[in-house]
Design goal:
About 80% of the residues lie in helices and about 0% in strands. It has about 240 residues and is mainly α.
């Protein structure tokens, strides 16, 4: 009996702790001059020579898990390593960091979410449908700038999307935006100008935002369609008609 009561409270407690940690990190980021700190980190990476590439990947992974905005690191990668190498390093670091956050979200709170769905067949049907179509949904959300990258990493961990269907669409989906920001960083004259000042948007940026707008509309329509089909299937099954 005591063990059952312990298990009953264990998952909600872990979820509460996770939410508290996430909220603390987000609030802390508002009061700490992250950009200046990251510029100092980039200066340190520059001093490491060949090891700088490894350091950038590791730091990007940590930043992604800790909800630290990666735009300055991405721009800095372009400035330090150029477009091709910078894109490779950032995409690897971001993909691994996103996967680490996904696993934290899954093992911290997925069990609790599953228990809540047990008594709600409609939501359970939607969850299962999202799992079946997961790679498409993940890919579309990664192309859209509307969905916060760091928060989405943890949020998708709460779904039934498989690790494979999460990792590869995430990696592929972040590449267009990564190339854009790495390229912009390669144009900077020094660290001080990274992400600073007002400037006009380049045609490439407008094109990326256009793609993001289309992706946002597509993922909204697609998730709605998947959810509706799942609910209709659940209703038909409940009525004794498996078709």
């Amino acid at each position: 009996m005591a063990q059952a009561q312990k298990n009953t409270w264990n998952s909600p407690l872990k979820l509460g702790i996770g939410i508290l940690v996430v909220a603390t990190l987000i609030v802390a980021a508002q009061f700490i001059n992250i950009q200046e700190i990251l510029k100092g980190v980039l200066d340190w990476i520059d001093s490491l020579g060949a090891w700088g590439a490894v350091a950038l990947i590791v730091i990007y992974i940590v930043a992604t898990v800790l909800f630290i905005p990666g735009s300055i690191l991405t721009l800095g990668a372009g400035f330090l390593f150029g477009v091709i190498q910078g894109t490779i390093l950032v995409s690897v670091g971001a993909a691994i960091g996103a996967t680490a956050a996904f696993l934290v979200g899954r093992y911290l709170a997925r069990g609790w979410v599953s228990k809540q769905l047990e008594g709600k067949p409609k939501f359970q049907a939607i969850d299962e449908a999202v799992a079946r179509e997961g790679w498409k949904i993940v890919g579309l959300t990664r192309l859209s700038p509307i969905f916060p990258f760091n928060l989405l990493n943890y949020g998708l961990g709460l779904t039934q999307v498989s690790l494979r269907d999460y990792f590869f669409p995430t990696w592929i989906g972040i590449i267009p935006g990564t190339i854009l920001y790495v390229y912009l960083g390669s144009l900077a004259s020094d660290f001080a100008t990274l992400g600073a000042g007002e400037r006009s948007r380049t045609p490439a940026e407008w094109a990326f935002y256009g793609i993001g707008l289309v992706a946002t509309a597509a993922v909204t329509w697609y998730v709605t369609r998947v959810a509706r089909k799942a609910l209709n299937r659940k209703v038909d099954t409940s009525d004794g008609n498996p078709d």
